[in-house]
Write a structure and sequence with these properties.
With 255 residues, the chain is of the alpha/beta class. 36% of the residues lie in helices and 15% in strands. The protein has helices at 36-44, 64-73, 85-95, 113-124, 150-159, 164-167, 171-175, 203-218, 226-234, 237-241; strands at residues 10-15, 30-31, 34-35, 52-58, 76-80, 100-105, 132-134, 146-149, 182-184. Strands 5-4-1-6-8-7-9 form a 7-stranded mixed beta sheet, sandwiched between helices. It has a two-stranded antiparallel ribbon with strand order 2-3. Helix 3 runs antiparallel to helix 5 (150-159). 39% of the residues are buried.
């Protein structure tokens, strides 16, 4: 990936914790004998070795397992505030001296790394004219990510007025389009399927994601992309309907 800026100042931050109300310890549910978050990290590592990968978790005892995982996979770890995720991500970026952040939640274990690359390229090639690049609208839930400046996050953190903006890291930025320069990347038609969710919220999600990973790994296709997932799920109606009834928190947020 050719970029016009210093990749050493760019980090992929994965926000994750064990104490999920709907599905506790979900990141360590196993697929092919590996924690599902490990599969996610190994795919993200293929983007560019210069880009740091960091797990941003909490200081709670049960999240010590993330520290051990990070050590085993030779990636960075940051432990911060449990409920104030925005503060955790900001402090993580400052601690590692990141100028630019690519934020991906641990709930997106099969995120398309080509789409992540596209976001990074768009942001870094237009870094003087943009504060944040997003790509989630139209994609399946669980395929989106955000790239933004640490300075923009720091500025938005000082502007926070609503409780949900502490939990959803870029929500304050997205609500203040007059302050933060934003680019929203629209997906190609073959990547557009907003009715599909491959985000890890509940156990039905895990079963669906597990089947997807097993299907493509069996074909030795570790780098399956969003289009591959859409086509596979569309070919099996039972998969498409398996988690369709789950209510997603992100869908109820108001910008």
């Amino acid at each position: 990936m050719k970029l016009d800026t210093d990749l050493n100042k760019t980090g992929i931050i994965i926000a994750a914790r064990s104490n999920s109300k709907r599905l506790p310890n979900k990141h360590f549910l196993k697929v092919l004998k590996k924690p599902i978050i490990e599969i996610m990290i190994k795919r993200l590592k293929l983007i560019n070795p210069k880009i740091k990968i960091i797990i941003a978790t909490t200081k709670k005892k049960e999240d010590l397992k993330f520290v051990k995982l990070a050590e085993r996979l030779s990636i960075n770890i940051y432990r911060g505030d449990e409920k104030n995720v925005t503060k955790r991500i900001l402090e993580c970026a400052k601690k590692l001296k990141l100028k630019y952040i690519c934020e991906i939640t641990g709930d997106c274990p099969i995120i398309d790394i080509k789409l992540v690359e596209q976001n990074l390229k768009t942001f870094l090639n237009n870094v003087n004219n943009v504060d944040i690049v997003l790509n989630g609208v139209g994609l399946p839930n669980g395929m989106g990510c955000q790239v933004y400046k640490t300075s923009a996050l720091n500025k938005s953190f000082k502007l926070i007025k609503k409780k949900d903006e502490y939990e959803h890291v870029t929500l304050c930025m997205r609500r203040n389009t007059n302050i933060f320069r934003q680019v929203n990347i629209s997906p190609l038609t073959e990547y557009t399927f907003p009715d599909l969710a491959v985000t890890l919220d509940e156990y039905q999600d895990f079963l669906l994601i597990k089947k997807i990973i097993e299907h493509f790994f069996k074909k030795k296709k570790m780098l399956f992309d969003c289009r591959d997932v859409i086509n596979f799920v569309k070919s099996k109606k039972s998969l498409l309907m398996s988690n369709a009834s789950i209510q997603r928190v992100d869908n109820t947020l108001k910008l």
